[in-house]
Amino acid sequence: MFIETEQEMVAATIQYRRDYLDGLYAVLEERRGQYTQIREKYIDSERCAGNREKYRSDLIEMLGWPLTEQAELRHNPMEVTCQKAYDLPYASAYRMTFEILPGLRTYGMFFKSAKPAESKPFTVACHGGVGTPEVIAETFETNNYNRIVERLCSFGDGINVFCPLFHMWAERFGPPMKEKEDMGYDRNRVDGRLKQVGSSTTAIEVFAIIRELDWFMDQKIAKDGHIGICGLSYGGFYTTMTSACDTRFSAAYSSAQFNDRYRYGREDWIWHESAAKFLDAEIAGLIAPRPFFVEGGENDDLFDVKSFISESDRARTFFEAAGVPEKFISHVHPGTHEVALDDTGITFLYENIK
After folding, report:
1. Does residue 253 fall inside a structural domain?
2. What CATH number did the domain enclosing 296 receive?
3. Residue 16 lies in a domain
4. What are phi and psi of 21, to 5 degrees?
5. Residue 331 pairs with which residues in a beta bridge?
6. In what order do the strands lie in the sheet with 160-164?
7. Beta bridge partners of 247
8. How far is the C-alpha of 245 from the C-alpha of 124, rounded, in Å?
9. Cα–Cα distance, 99 to 85 (Å, whole number)
10. Choosing a second label site near 281 at 20 to 30 A (CA), which of 24, 243, 275, 306?
11. Where are the alpha helices (DSSP H) in the chain?
């Protein structure tokens, strides 16, 4: 027989659950302290400067397949489609698909700058959460990207811009997918399934950018020494991670993402024992000695600007050890979770890829 009501049971046992949860957090905090010490013994600015390629290989190994087999996979033929979509005052827009792996087609939009200069630099511009290439280009609504694609295409002598699609769009862009296990738009569930087989969403999507860049370089649209990458929020994450993995990117500009991964550790930004090797500052160390610009909004309601500043201070030591402190810029703008309205980051990117 029941000796107490459900209400009485909850009241009598809630403290046990609180104690358990408090204990979990205490164990986690102690474990993080231990792993910070492990990471500091594994990598610091001086070690990274002396053996950067070894650490880059370790990062790729952590992210998983197909990055771990890219040397072979990038030799496979890749079917590419390109269809004119429309003309804008600042660019001609094209919809593109790339078969980066057998049976896996990725999508993106290419914006060919309307500026008259014959030779222009090239930049990958990465959208953030619940976004698409059309969202970052603001082709149907204004948003927190603050016209970044238009500003890039129009800056200086012009920049040609490619905007890849990532698996993080909102349901308003199409009905939920029902096939297989109804993973639909659940990015974390897809990521977990990929990690189960030695891959990750990040590995797939960084590899996609690498393959897409292969094509643009083959077509002479992107030229060695004149290639940039930028992005907001999740796009800032892909900016940092991709330029750390692929040294063809001459400069990178990450907005509203660079931060303390202990404080902001989304499931798909975490790998097994990643705290023992790479948090944001260490990944930035793999971008050095190439130019890297990070920015955060003083009034960002998602990521605290104070932890952005502290992680930037850690990252700066890697560029100092590489002998190029001037190539790392940490910029705080007065905005929220958005691309800065001022052109400081765009100017930095352009000057390093023009």
Report:
1. yes
2. 3.40.50.1820
3. no
4. -65, -40
5. 295
6. 80-87, 91-101, 104-113, 160-164, 122-126, 227-232, 251-255, 292-297, 328-333
7. none
8. 15
9. 20
10. 24
11. 6-42, 45-50, 52-63, 70-73, 133-137, 148-154, 187-196, 201-218, 234-245, 280-285, 305-321, 344-353
Q: Give the structural domain span for 177.
A: 43-353
Instruction: Please name the amino acid found at residue 220.
Output: K
Contacts 24+ apart (CB under 8 A), 57-61: 58/277, 58/278, 59/244, 59/245, 59/277, 59/278, 59/283, 59/286, 60/245
Whether 96 maps to a domain, the answer reads yes
Residue 179 tokens, joined: 């096939």
Six-digit token string for 118: 């014959």
- 115 lies in some domain: yes
User: What whole-number distance in Å separates Cα of residue 146 and Cα of residue 298?
Assistant: 16
pLDDT in tens, 240-256: 999 999 999 999 999 99
pLDDT digits (tens, 9 = 90+) for 182-191: 555 688 889 9
| Domains held by the chain: number | 1
